[in-house]
C-alpha cells in the first residue's frame, strides 16, 4: 500500500496544503488539496474518494477536481460519505450557486461525481480494499477509516479530538502497519483544541496510550502558523514511533 500525502496540514498557505491522502494512485482520502497538489492526469486516474467530514479543508477540491476532469474519465468519481456529510456537500458546495452540481453533469445517468451513503461500522469493499468507517470525536458526523489491502492495514483518523472507538477496532486489526492522526494546536491553546475537537501534543501523548503498541504514528493537520512550536512540543512527547507530516507530497509504503 502506497500512501501519498498530497496535503497534510490544517491550513492553507504557500508550502502548506489541506488534507488529501492518495492510496495507490486510485483511492483518495479527503479532497482538501487534490486538485492543486497533483497533475490533472493523476487526478483523472482516481476511482474512489472517501470523505471523513464536511469541513472545507477536506472537501474544497471536490469542486476543482470535477472541473479539471470534466469529460476526461468516461465514468464518475465515486465518492463515499455518511449522510450528514453528503447533505452538507450538496447543500453548501455543489448547489449550483457556489459551484455547479457535478452530480448531474454532464448527465444524471453519467455524472462527473457520484456520492454514495456510507454507514458507520458497516464495512465497505472497493476492489482490493476493505474499509471500516468508524465515528470519531469531531463535527459533521466525522469518520475515521481502517483501510486494509492484501496483507497491510492502515488507520486514518483525520480530524479528531480524544476518541475511543477507532482504537478498540485498531487493536483487533491484523497486520496494522501505520496510524495517521492529527495534532493541530500547541499546548497553550488546549481550550481552543478541545472546543474545536482537535489535539494538542499534550492530549496526543495521552491518546497514544489507547493505540496499539509498536505501530508507526504519523501526525498531520498541523496549523501552519504554529508549525515550529508544534514540532518542538511533539518532539517532547518522546515517542520514537512518531513521524511529523510537516511537508506535502511525501510518500510511504506499507
From TrEMBL:
Metallo-beta-lactamase domain ranges (all copies): 17-221
Superkingdom of the source species: Bacteria
EC number: 3.1.4.17
MF GO annotations: 3',5'-cyclic-nucleotide phosphodiesterase activity
TM region positions: none
CDD domains: class_II_PDE_MBL-fold
Extent of the signal sequence: none
Pfam families membership: Lactamase_B_2
Enzyme's top EC category: hydrolase
Keywords attached to this entry: Hydrolase
Protein name in the entry: 3',5'-cyclic-nucleotide phosphodiesterase
Organism: Bacteriovorax antarcticus
Phylogenetic lineage: Bacteria, Pseudomonadati, Bdellovibrionota, Bacteriovoracia, Bacteriovoracales
Amino acid at each position: 500500500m502506497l500512501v501519498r500525502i498530497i496535503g497534510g496540514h490544517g491550513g492553507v498557505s504557500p508550502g502548506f496544503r489541506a488534507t488529501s491522502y492518495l492510496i495507490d494512485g486510485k483511492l483518495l482520502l479527503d479532497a482538501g488539496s487534490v486538485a492543486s497538489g497533483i497533475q490533472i492526469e493523476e487526478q483523472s486516474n482516481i476511482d474512489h474518494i472517501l470523505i471523513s467530514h464536511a469541513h472545507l479543508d477536506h472537501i474544497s477540491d471536490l469542486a476543482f477536481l470535477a472541473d479539471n476532469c470534466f469529460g476526461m474519465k468516461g465514468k464518475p468519481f465515486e465518492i463515499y460519505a455518511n449522510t450528514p456529510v453528503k447533505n452538507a456537500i450538496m447543500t453548501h458546495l455543489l448547489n449550483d450557486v457556489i459551484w455547479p452540481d457535478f452530480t448531474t453533469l454532464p448527465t444524471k445517468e453519467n455524472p462527473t461525481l457520484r456520492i454514495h451513503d456510507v454507514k458507520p461500522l458497516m464495512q465497505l469493499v472497493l476492489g482490493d480494499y476493505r474499509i471500516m468507517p468508524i465515528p470519531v470525536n469531531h463535527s459533521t458526523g466525522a469518520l475515521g477509516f481502517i483501510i486494509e489491502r492484501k496483507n497491510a492495514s492502515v488507520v486514518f483518523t483525520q480530524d479528531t479530538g480524544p476518541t475511543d472507538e477507532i482504537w478498540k477496532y485498531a487493536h483487533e486489526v491484523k497486520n496494522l502497519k501505520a496510524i495517521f492522526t492529527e495534532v493541530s494546536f500547541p499546548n497553550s491553546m488546549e481550550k481552543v483544541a478541545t472546543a474545536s475537537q482537535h489535539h494538542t501534543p499534550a492530549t496526543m501523548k495521552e491518546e497514544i496510550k489507547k493505540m496499539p503498541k509498536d505501530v508507526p504514528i504519523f501526525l498531520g493537520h498541523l496549523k501552519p502558523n504554529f508549525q515550529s512550536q508544534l514540532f518542538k512540543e511533539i518532539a517532547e512527547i518522546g515517542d520514537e514511533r512518531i513521524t511529523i507530516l510537516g511537508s506535502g507530497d511525501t510518500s510511504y509504503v506499507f
